[in-house]
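W.,

You were right to be curious about this one. When I first looked at the sequence I had no strong expectations either way, so I just let the prediction run and decided to look at it fresh. Below is the sequence, 300 residues in total, followed by the output.
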Amino acid sequence: MEEHKKRIIKAIRYIDNHLDADLSLEKIAEIAMYSSFHFHRIFKLITGETLQNYISRKKIEKSAFYLAAKKNLEIKEIYLDLGFSNHSVFSKTFKKYYGISPSAFRNSAPETFHKILQIESKKGQVDTVFSQYICHVENLLNWTKMNLKIEVKELPEMNLAAVMSLGIANVEPSYNVLIEWAKKKQLFPREKVKMISVYHDSFKVTPPDKVRIHACMLLDERLEEQSGLVFSETIEAGKFILGSGEFTLQDFEQCWVSLFLWMNENHYSMRKAFPFEIYHSNFKEHPEGKMIVDFCIPIH
C-alpha cells in the first residue's frame, strides 16, 4: 500500500509542477511506474476524471490564480506559459470551467478570492489533494479485499469457439450467434458450459464502438474449421492472475481496475496475451443481475 501511495503522489506532484511540460499519458505512466493502460484506468477510478480532463482542469485553475493574483502578467503570458496554443483555445477552455472569459474573470475577481490565492499554501494544498486520492485508493483496496478473491494460477490451454464483435453493443448478439451454432452442434445447453470474453483491444486506445471482443465458448477439443461466423481460438497455457467473485455488469470496470492495481502492488507484469473473463453463471438468471466471474490477466 505504501508503495502505491508513493506512485500516486509522484504522478500528481509531477503533473502539478509541470503544467507547461510534456504531460502525455505515456510520460505520466512512466513517472508513476505503470503501463499506460493500467495507469489510465487506475487514475480515472481514483480521481473520478480522465488524465486529460485532470490536466486541463489544473491548467485552468492555475490560470485563474495568475489572473486574480498576478495582475502584472499579460493574459498571453499566462496561457502560453501553461501550454495553450492561442488565445481562442485558452478562452474557450476557460469559459467552459468558469462561465466567463479570462479578462472578465480578472476584472471581477473579488479581493477575498485574491487574498485566498495569495496565501495558498502549496504544500498544504498538495497534501489535501493527496489525502483525497489516497482515501480513494484505500477504499478501492478495501473493496477489493471484500469482493474479489485474487490468486495466481497456472491455467491449461483452452480451446474456444469464437465469434468476433466490434464494440460493446455487439457482444450480446455475438453470443446469440455462438449459442445458435452450439445448439446445432448439440454443444448447448449442457452442464457447466463456460462462456468466455477475450479482449483483443484496449478501451484506452480504441473507441468503445470499435473495441474487438471475442464472444467464446470453451470446448473439449480444438475446433478444426471455421463455420460461418464461428472460428477457432486458443488461449495458451500459462500463469494468470485470477480475480473471482459475484458481480453485476456495472462492477466489471472496478474489478478490472482492482486487479491491475493488485498486479502492480505485487510486482507482476502482464505478458503479451489477451485478458479475458470466464463466466460461471448467467446474470439474466439472477434476481439481482449478478454473475460469477473470473477476471484473468496473463502474467510472466
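Here's what jumped out at me. The chain has two domains: 2-144, 150-298. And, maybe more interesting for your project: Residues 2-144 form a domain with the Arc Repressor Mutant, subunit A fold (CATH 1.10.10.60).

Coffee later to discuss?

I.
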